[in-house]
Amino acid sequence: MNRHQPNFSMPDPLPDPFSRRVKRIIRRIPRGRVTTYGMIAADAGNPRAARQVGWILHASARKHGLPWHRVVNRNGRVSVRRGDGDDIQKQLLEKEGVVFDENGVIDLAVFAWFPSGLT
DNA sequence: CATATGACGATAT
DNA sequence: AATATCGCCATAT
Q: Between these two residues, A119 and A64, which has the higher pLDDT value?
């Protein structure tokens, strides 16, 4: 069949790919708050895809103007390897009021933001 | 199609 | 407590 027939339908361009949902969620992280790779993945519909969240950011955060620095790991620590952009991320967060303790750990009980609603 | 690679997370040593 | 291993799964090659 071809596109001029009545029942023709274009293939779904992008149904709702994981990466799109991840980016949408990250865009909503409030200033001065952080969330984790795992929570983002879970809220995007795949609780086991935390690694992909990191991969997606590494690949296209800057390009999409996402607040990539507001994403940390489950332990409240920056996951960027030393010498890459770890210090940058810390600076950006501190500028927003996020506090790191002497070990470079953020108190998630204070600063974590939950994608799934409840503040 | 087969491997390799992670800005993770949970468990085992 | 610190390190190693394993499960996961989207991209890369």
A: A64
Asked if the Cβ of residue A48 lies within 7 A of any atom of strand C, the reply is yes
Please give the share of chain A, as a percent, with pLDDT higher than 70: 85
CA distance A89 to A103: 15
The pLDDT of A46-62, averaged and rounded, is 89
A81 CB and strand B closer than 7 A: yes
Mean pLDDT, residues A30-55: 94
Residue A30 CA, nucleotide C11 C1', distance (Å): 29
Q: If we measure between CA atoms, which residue out of A102, A98, A105, A61 comes closest to residue A79?
A: A105
- Cβ–Cβ under 8 Å, residues A75 and A105: yes
From the CA of A29, how many Å to the C1' of C6?
A: 31
Where on strand B do bases come within 7 A of a protein Cβ? 6-10
pTM: predicted TM-score of the whole model, two decimal places? 0.85
> Do A22 and A56 touch, CB atoms closer than 8 A?
yes
Mean pLDDT of chain A: 86
